Amino acid sequence: MSTLLSLGHGYSARALAARLIPQGWRVIGTTRNPAKAEVFRAQGVEPVLWPGDLGPALAQATHILCSAAPDGQGDPFLRAVPGIAQARAGWVGYLSTTGVYGDHDGGWVDEDTPLTPQSDRGMQRVVAESQWRATGLPVHIFRLAGIYGPGRGPFEKVRDGTARRIIKPGQVFSRIHVDDIAQVLEASIRKPNPGAAYNLCDDNPCPPDEVIGHAAQLLGLPEPPAVAFDVVEPTMTPMARGFYQESKRVRNDRIKDELGVSLLYPDYPAGLAALLRDEAS
Fold first, then answer.
1. Residue 68 has what pLDDT?
2. pLDDT of 209
3. Phi, psi (5° rounding) for residue 27?
4. Which residues lie closer than 8 Å to 49 by C-beta, 6 or more apart?
């Protein structure tokens, strides 16, 4: 039986598990929250509390996915569990971020673009990527753009009137639907290429205010007010501020050419429309 050990079993990892479990996979997921253990079990995932003994799970894992956030020293699992480097998994995936490329003034980047992160988050991801590669395991790096999907769309803020169209001239983001993340990960599992890095994003990098405006249009609500980035920057979280400090368009040719992926949601109109359909069903 194929067994996936999911280190830091979060939003994207759950989407992958939802694809694998119906195919007969066993999925083991770590969590720091004991209350989540029952939620995991209801989803068919075997919970392991962390910090804790990962030895038995590592010994049984045929595949490993790490989606835990790094810190100033890099990846927390590699630091706390030296035995990971001796795992026998035939496929290892590490979820990183397109923030490792830094700011390119709206220009295009691909997987061969030098890593020049500017945010602390991006710098930490570069360190963690390097640490995973140094294990000698069959590691695959997945650099994720802005993630959206069920429970992580713009509709709630548009509905309750708190959404704003933040305007920063020249600003563009790439984004990716969580279901497309899951299908890329599964495609890589089916066609491993240790050492490879993949950008996970859709075909339509665009200004973030455009997405908010389209969400309002789909709901039949007034377009949220426009506000200049300089006005709202002081109130932003560090993560949100980091997003707006970087502007780039991310190429996704490799997931298509190498893994044969056809995106379920190649742009945000398709993805947002699907979210509304799911809400109604």
1. 94
2. 95
3. -125, 125
4. 30, 31, 32, 34, 37
Backbone angles phi, psi at 261, to 5 degrees: -80, 135
Sign of CA dihedral 34, 49, 18, 6: positive
Cα–Cα distances (Å) from 217 to 147, 172, 267, in that order, read: 21, 20, 16
Cβ atoms within 10 Å, residue 98: 24
| pLDDT of res. 1 | 86
Q: Identify any residues that bridge with 64 across adjacent strands, giving them in sequence order.
A: 5, 92
User: In the structure encoding, which two tokens stand for residue 246, read together?
Assistant: 């970087």
Predicted pLDDT at 237: 86
H or E segment and range at residue 164: none
3-class DSSP state of 116: coil
Kindly state the helix (H) or strand (E) to which residue 99 belongs, with its residue range: none
Which of 9, 12, 54 lies closest to 27 in space, CA to CA?
Answer: 9
* Tokens read off for 183: 């299908």
Taking the chain (281 residues) in runs of 10, the rounded mean pLDDT of each run is 96 98 98 94 96 94 97 94 92 97 97 95 96 97 97 93 93 96 98 98 96 96 94 86 89 98 98 93 76
Distance separating alpha carbons of residues 130 and 153, to the nearest angstrom = 32
Residue 164: CB partners within 8 Å, gap ≥ 6?
212, 224, 225, 226, 227, 232
- pTM higher than 0.90 for the full model? yes
Q: Are 197 and 111 a contacting pair, CB within 8 Å? A: yes
Interacting residues of 104 by C-beta distance below 8 A, sequence separation 6+ = 113, 246, 247, 248, 249
Q: In Å, how far are 69, 92, 98, 188 from 244, measured between CA atoms?
A: 20, 31, 13, 30
Q: Which residue matches tokens 């983001």?
A: 173
